[in-house]
Amino acid sequence: MTVYAIAQLKMTDRAAYDRYQARFFDVFRKYNGRLLAADEHPRVLEGAWPHDKLVMMSFADEAAFLAFSNSPEYEEISRDRKAGAQATVLLVRGFDPAG
């Protein structure tokens, strides 16, 4: 079942985050994910949103996401993401109307 990874980011060190972002696609492409959205100015329609960026990705299933997020390549670049932004990351299962 398709899963969606949603990250809400609050920048703390833009230079570190930019280093992460510059290397992200080289790693991401290897794991067949799809980048669905990456927006530093989402329109807040209701409530408060104290973040600077939203990123949404999809993967074929949870195993595919975990292969990406636990890979040595991603763990290496994620040091800059963690140094550059506070994050809330959610993994959401897709909707299956059949069950």
TrEMBL record:
<dbReference type="Pfam" id="PF07045">
    <property type="entry name" value="DUF1330"/>
</dbReference>
<dbReference type="InterPro" id="IPR010753">
    <property type="entry name" value="DUF1330"/>
</dbReference>
<dbReference type="InterPro" id="IPR011008">
    <property type="entry name" value="Dimeric_a/b-barrel"/>
</dbReference>
<protein>
    <submittedName>
        <fullName>DUF1330 domain-containing protein</fullName>
    </submittedName>
</protein>
<feature type="domain" description="DUF1330">
    <location>
        <begin position="2"/>
        <end position="95"/>
    </location>
</feature>
